[in-house]
Amino acid sequence: MGNFKVTKKHHKHLNNPFPSAPNHIPFRKGTVFTTSAAHPSHQLYPIGTDFQAIWHSNENGETGSGWQISIHHRLQPQEPIWSTVPGQAFVSAGCADTEVEESRGSFAIHDRDVHLLCDHQSVDEIRVVDEPDEGDNVSWGLELGEKFDLGGLNFPVLLITGSVFSSKSRKSDESGGDEGFIFVEKHSVSVRYWVLFDQKNSNQIGFHVKFEKPDVQHGTLRSSSNWYSRGWGLRLRMGRIWEKKWTGWCLPFWRTRGFLADSSPEGTEGSDKMENCFEINRVWFTYSSEDGERFYGFGEQFSHIDLKGKRVPIFTQEQGIGRGDQPITLAANLVSYRAGGNSGTTYAPSPFYMTSKMKSLYLEGYNYSVFDLRRKDRVQIQIHGDSVQGRILYGRSPTELIEAYTWSIGRPSVLPEWIISGAVAGMQGGTDSVRLMLERLKSYDVPICAFWLQDWVGRRETIIGSQLWWNWEVDAERYWGWRELIKDLGNQNIKVMTYCNPCLAPADAKPNFRRNLFEEAKELDILVKNKEGGPYMVPNTAFDVGMLDLTHPDSRRWFKGILMDMVSDGVRGWMADFGEGLPVDAFLYSGEDPVSAHNRYPELWAQINREFVEEWKSSCGESEKEATDESLVFFMRAGFRNSPMWCALFWEGDQMVSWQAHDGIKSAVVGLLSSGISGYAFNHSDIGGYCAVNLPIISYKRSEELLLRWMEFSAFTIVFRTHEGNKPSCNSQFYSNHRTLWHFSRFAKVYQAWKFYRTQLVKEASERGLPVCRHLFLHYPNDKRAQSLSHQQFLVGTEILVVPILDKGKKKVKAYFPMGENEAWLHIWTGKLYSQPGREALVEAPLGHPAAFVKAGSTVGSTFLENLKELNLVH
């Protein structure tokens, strides 16, 4: 079994500002072996009622190169939805050590010493298995039942068996025939595998790969000082050198130490016999791709829409500060280990994608995985575990694939009407500040639906500034007359929203606390534990916190009580923050592996909040249930594959107050669109961004222009919500002056003008899983230009096209009108008609008039324009 090590970097204050990418085992490439005598050169195998697999080889029967298996749907039998690379192994396995470097919510997962690599694969048997009730299927059924859960299988299923092994192979004619028989020379390590394909429904096929323990019979152990280990080290080093050339980064040389299997029967002095001491903890699943194929999805990705050519890790964590934009990333990395993040770090990843060729796949389970898309002709997924399970999807369009995917993982519930009816004003300061702000907003005729008051718990001064008290009860001094304030706002159809997260800070130093929730949770023994059995204190910015063990049933019940206290005061919404920081060496009540639990934790956090919402709804009277203005809503940033089933509304976390590409206004658009493809139908960002930096050398402050342009962009998303940011005094705010208040009012009204359509899209999302804001690829999949777009523009549903200004000082923007049949687009401010699909046009977009268009002749477009006129926004 490989070793596992966690290295804490929380308190390291001087770090490499340019950290290298985490060490990883180079791309695996092995050969598949079989015999044409065992497998005809072309054979069809049914899988369920709607799919079939085809196994075929070259016409001359040559083994090795040419053997391939592909899967097809009966509606398009000529187009494979998944296929292996001809002649190449499609499953591989290994054993390696793992090191995780952790620092304040950021994680770097390294492959360290490699003990075993089984790259080559034999296909010994391909068998269609019907229900195991009679005849020859009985023995197969028994074997199948030993390895897989037979419950719910739709027979017939396809079972492929064989071995993966670590030695070289050669061709031989010793079989006496002319089939070109392949056999394996005495290999030192072999691992038997099973691959099961079964139909899940009419548009999904499941796959499940399992391995036995390695069979080590003929090998010897050689220390890393001998020539064989040095040879392997050289091969791996050369692999890393190639990867440097590929990525353009200087990555550290790969090092192999410890023991490696040797196929030689002769040992060296001091060598030991190989024992069955290894267990598989790395699995590779490899299959074909096409040159030029674009890959979309993978959850909420902030830097790239098309991930082809990238290596995509699937691990929830802090997105980072800068994520490659300079100089902020350098500075963040310098003062806190890897705090800058990179183009692959995200709060809400998902092991799912779809491609421009209508291929789609996702992994089940929660193990750490990496999708390697750097090769033109293949995809390779590395899974940290001893098996892999997932589904391959069939669809004839991107929207069909999203529907198929969200049918499995879950779709969001319908949002309460109030949250999509007006602006959500994010502010702080206490009761008096809220009442004064309300009067200012009224004077500018701002349609407001809620105040979001994250400082309802009170504020504390730390070495990094003013922060919240993580003790989830109202601060009665800051928000005196709390219930009266909520009631007064409610009488004006304005809700109050608050803030919480699954962490608790000791409240001993807080002068006016009523309950010390950390001490309560500690006494109840419902906090995540460290190896000594005490509360695991997790460093977070300037103070340490305990995390709720969400696998503990008492923890769930207790926190729902906290939420009930909050809602009983009249609160109707809250930010359910964090969820991405579970330490990977924690000890949980469930006893599960903390590495996989880390990816599951944000789903558990969402589930608790959702369960409370449903339980509260059930406890209400009939009149309250029917009153949509009394429904609850929460929003989150952390997530994983199934999060949309539990959390309806997301926000994109902490973008920089910047125009830059990887962490700023542009990344907010990319995150919105990539998450939408991945099932996150309702997502939005903090207007103006969140993270400001005010240092003598490096300064990032929210400018007025950035704030106003972010308002224009956000007016076309599901929720229109402001945030003061981490340094309110450094940032331009919606209430800063007459111009900002006027602009805020104007675009809150633009947002209000398409509420009728937003309501339709919310219902559609709950029924079909389609996002409100959409990449053009979803509706124009054959348009090459639309496929290549990133942050430049997006659709709202199918009827509104938005081309936001995302660069400082720009007043014109290039708009691309996609290749739709007989489509034309109408500019909402001037009424100009653009009727040449597939063309770009330079469009005027001064402040207050962003480039937005409606589909000519559509009912939605006409209604939107009429509403804009009634609100005196257009003439």
TrEMBL record:
> Boundaries of each Glycosyl hydrolase family 31 C-terminal domain copy?
769-858
Which keywords annotate this record?
Answer: Glycosidase, Hydrolase
Q: Which Pfam families match?
A: Gal_mutarotas_2, Glyco_hydro_31_2nd, Glyco_hydro_31_3rd
Compositionally biased tracts (Basic residues): 1-14
Hydrolase listed as a keyword: yes
Q: Which CDD domains match?
A: GH31_glucosidase_YihQ (cd06594), GH31_N (cd14752)
Q: Give the signal peptide range.
A: none
Is Mitochondrion found in the keyword set? no
**GO BP annotation list:** carbohydrate metabolic process
Do you know which InterPro entries this protein is assigned to?
Gal_mutarotase_sf_dom, GH, Glyco_hydro_31_C, Glyco_hydro_31_N_dom, Glyco_hydro_31_TIM, Glyco_hydro_b, Sulfoquinovosidase_GH31, YihQ_TIM-like
Q: Glycoside hydrolase family 31 TIM barrel domain: from which residue to which, for each copy?
A: 430-753
Q: Name one GO molecular function term.
A: hydrolase activity, hydrolyzing O-glycosyl compounds
**Domain Glycoside hydrolase family 31 N-terminal spans what residues?**
276-359
Region called Disordered, residue ranges = 1-23
Q: Which family does it belong to?
A: Belongs to the glycosyl hydrolase 31 family.
Q: What is this protein called?
A: Alpha-glucosidase
Q: Which domain of life is it from?
A: Eukaryota
